[in-house]
Amino acid sequence: MRQSPFYLGGGTALALQLGHRRSVDFDWFRxxxxxxxxxxxxxxxxxxxxxxxxxxxxxxxxxxxxxxxxSFLEYRYRLLRPLLDKGAGLSVASLEDIACMKLxxxxxxxxxxDFVDLxxxxxxxxxxxxxRLYRRKYGVSDPGHLFFALSFFDDADSExxxxxxxSWTWAAIKNTIRGWVSETAR
Length: 186
Hints:
The protein is α+β, with helices and mostly antiparallel strands. It is 43% helix and 18% strand.
């Protein structure tokens, strides 16, 4: 089967690798430009996939396939590690790259599922390691803004807990992440 120029990233890619929670949306990334998202939608339809377009933005296509949310995103950042080949043309981002994506997501929106995912990644990497990877991936010299983002749970507190496959509590996740921040910021 032909390899797709897109790779699976984000929470679903992480959940496939770590098995910590259910995730029912697919975020497809590619390093090449997506100059015309509606043309991409047409190409997907020509391949026999019934994609219902919800919205488009520059370099981005959001929609649903069979009731499942899908996003196709132009993501020009270099990969830190090679993509993982899962067969049948499916490529998945590495844990290192997903750790960076999740730190960026927490800095932008701070959703509960992103904190849950960082907690899961914290069983693989220390926060210090994740920050080192983040600097490398995004060319950031001082990721200090992340310390605030990683300590701000107000928005996430009001969200529902994702469907977990591990017996982790929101209180334990917050306390652990606060501990990482305090230990790493010293």
